[in-house]
């Protein structure tokens, strides 16, 4: 266990091989992605869509809200439909109705079962036949299908325009009228929606009953059902996961690590004096709390739109804060405040670890703070104004809202954020360099912190990998590099190494043990995590190899979580190791909560979705939201709050510290999150999955189902949990405000203590 050189070699080998495989898969996606036609023509010579319209329509959809307004191929928000599934169903029904009138002179619903069966068989044959001609780059449709396409296209053009007859439907979708003011943009949009649905049903060249999206979405009308590979690889992944968990438990039980050291008699950090750059990080943590409050507020508004659409308890809030904006802020701020907490922690601990303060370090920390503040505020304001004013595709991509979930800020802001992250890595590196150059038991841990930080800064470059005309399948490929590998990968490695460093500085963990344990944990995590990224891409126009690789490696992602409970218990024991450790009770309890939510949110709810057969029916449903909330806040959010509290402990007047307020914060956040997930999101997800399995994705995402009495009841059941959770954020803000008041006026310690007593 202590031969770290071998572990470092294994880590390097796994990273090189895994990223090589991920790169190869990216090439395969690029080569075998659904072809984008130069034109779509009918058999009678009518041109339905011309060259460039699909790519331009993709931009039109993204500028109108994109993944914040429904989804395509299952990725996006859940209130409006999945447009690919919705188009496919509407086109199938329209074409069947045309044939029923042509052949039998009656509506389909009035035909005899034999006649209906005849049309059903003809429908599957017509829609699954691949008529793309690689030589000319055109897709040819029969005259009847062209007529059906025209009907559906008119519906969407009217919907994204201002047709009064569709006002009620727009209200259910939480979208304003004239969201695309230009008729050309609306026509281009229909080309993109048609192409996304065509890719979902048309058989791949040389294949039978296998579409470009591996038969997603589930649509019985056209024969879209799970492929054999979807079922086989799901079974194989479960078997692999169980075997790997058994191996992990066996390894853990046969490995004999040195026990924790005898803790010091007093807090080693009690008399530590923060350097000027460390003190400069205090404002970062207050911005983190402000972002948390804003994110929770936007979450409340966004959830309520699921009931009223464009109003908030009768107030027409949607006119100035539409659903697409509130949801963008809610998802974007979640990533930003968590990342800011972790970045600030790195800047805080670096001088403490090295024991030196580089020249101009404080200036760099301050410059970076205001640069990040400008990026957050600027991207939010320009995105909001761009959505309200419908300024256009180019503005949305470069300055406004790109319409991509978790990566929505305009390209200019992404470039600036990338530059900011590189500055952060530089500041962190120059502060850590003395410690990296000095041989010590902790040097491996410090190296892991710096390498993870280097990856955090460098891998944000993947947000610049796609352009306005990039194929949608490749946009999703690169987007998940950022969302999965950046947030769920290297940030987690960074935070885990930082926590280990903090425990070693407190004398609660042996440095040698922590060194090898962190490298081993990183090996296990990245071995499944890098290629496990592909489980997000099963049905996004990717080759079937993605299902096989993604299923097996995403199963391995669950394996290290099997031992998280053991680590959480050991952290709890460490919190009881000595009386002085109680000063760090709440940061440590946050780390313990991370273990709980890792098992429940990332493990239990995550693996509920990870197998291909499960995701086939539940992609784009509320079960995904349940996993997202439990994992994102429960794991990364609680980790961020724990780090925040640890740093504030060293930055604040100890007399102003209120364990009572932190107790209210901790339990309100965790209980509120559990109520939100298990009283609302999970029941809604199960109910919606039932509809998806029995009727199809289109029905599970239809307004008739989403606004049914049961689904709206589940929305209202979020309210108790939301209230408890929101109270937790308010207690955190009061706690932090109290620290700030006392910091500026030390004489206020007594009155602050009195206030804290009254709150109880």
Summarize the structure.
This protein has helices at 4-32, 53-63, 83-104, 113-128, 143-159, 167-173, 183-201, 228-254, 276-280, 282-308, 323-354, 361-389, 393-398, 411-437, 443-459, 472-505, 511-532, 545-558, 564-575, 585-610, 612-618, 622-651, 659-694, 697-700, 703-706, 709-716, 718-744, 749-759; strands spanning 39-42, 47-49, 71-72, 75-76, 132-133, 138-141. By secondary structure, the chain is mainly α. Helix 19 packs antiparallel against helix 20 (585-610).
List the helices and strands and how they pair.
Blueprint: H1 4-32, E1 39-42, E2 47-49, H2 53-63, E3 71-72, E4 75-76, H3 83-104, H4 113-128, E5 132-133, E6 138-141, H5 143-159, H6 167-173, H7 183-201, H8 228-254, H9 276-280, H10 282-308, H11 323-354, H12 361-389, H13 393-398, H14 411-437, H15 443-459, H16 472-505, H17 511-532, H18 545-558, H19 564-575, H20 585-610, H21 612-618, H22 622-651, H23 659-694, H24 697-700, H25 703-706, H26 709-716, H27 718-744, H28 749-759
Helix pairs in contact: 1-17, 2-7, 3-4, 3-5, 3-7, 5-7, 8-18, 8-21, 10-11, 10-27, 11-12, 11-14, 11-16, 11-22, 12-14, 14-15, 15-16, 15-17, 16-17, 17-18, 18-20, 19-20, 20-22, 20-23, 22-23, 23-26, 23-27
Pfam families: COX1, NorB_cytochrome_c-like
Domain Nitric oxide reductase subunit B cytochrome c-like: 37-218
Organism: Candidatus Accumulibacter phosphatis
